[in-house]
Write a structure and sequence with these properties.
Number of helices: 3
Distance between the termini: 42 Å
EC number: 1.13.11.3
InterPro entries: Intradiol_dOase_C, Intradiol_dOase_core, Intradiol_RC_Dioxygenase, Protocat_dOase_a
Enzyme class: oxidoreductase
Strand content: 25-35%
Radius of gyration: 18 Å
GO molecular function: protocatechuate 3,4-dioxygenase activity
Structural class: mainly beta
Family: Belongs to the intradiol ring-cleavage dioxygenase family.
Number of strands: 12
Strand order of the largest sheet: 4-3-8-9-10-11-1-5
Shape: globular
Helix content: under 10%
Largest sheet: 8 strands, mixed
Length: about 200
């Protein structure tokens, strides 16, 4: 009896179904009562409250208005908590998406993470892990967001120092600013082309 080899099922790029299932408000659908979205920290969460904000650009420099992002970070003491519970003041996981309005920005309300100890005990600078899903991408892109006012910690961060070119490291640095009178950090992601964001193969 002969055996027929089955071809690999092709990957599907992130399209409208990501937003329909996971970004209901952005897709124009009613939201669920319990939703994982862009608020990591409630007002009573300990730590320095900040807003993360950014845009996503394609290789031609055009805004990607339908990208979807997931972010994961430690708390203000540098500790990751893997248990997600909407009743807690802080959860280290969030989802967000760019929008179809003029600015096409994504935002996340969170607290600034603390210094994280790696599995080997090496301190890592405060950072946020970012996964990007967008059209034309078969597998999500992984990157990190660091803070420009943590220069001393950034200088010795083991992951940042894996990047040999200093100018490429700059693509992972979020810039401090203000949004509506509150502390914010801007982090724009460039998928390809000039100033392309560094992505990691985790």
């Amino acid at each position: 009896m002969s055996r027929e080899l089955l071809p690999e099922t092709p990957s599907q790029t992130a399209g409208p179904y990501v937003h329909i299932g996971l970004a209901l408000k952005v897709a124009g659908n009613p939201t669920r009562e319990q939703e994982i979205w862009n608020q990591m920290a409630r007002p009573d969460a300990p730590g320095e409250h900040i807003t993360l904000i950014g845009r996503v650009f394609d290789g031609n420099g055009f805004l990607v208005r339908d990208s979807f992002l997931e972010l994961w970070q430690a708390n203000h003491e540098g500790v990751y908590d893997c248990e997600y519970n909407l009743e807690k003041p802080f959860n280290g996981f969030a989802r967000t998406a760019t929008t179809f309005d003029a600015g096409s920005e994504w935002t996340v309300e969170t607290i600034k993470p603390g210094v994280v100890k790696s599995a080997a005990g090496v301190p890592m600078a405060p950072h946020v892990n970012v996964s990007l899903f967008a059209r034309g991408i078969n597998i999500q892109l992984q990157t990190r967001l660091y803070f420009d006012d943590e220069a001393e910690a950034n200088a010795v961060d083991p992951v940042l120092n894996l990047i040999e070119q200093p100018e490429r490291r700059e693509t992972l640095i979020a810039r401090r600013c203000e949004v509506d009178g509150k502390t914010a950090y801007r982090f724009d992601i460039r998928i390809q082309g000039e100033g392309e964001t560094v992505f990691f193969d985790f």
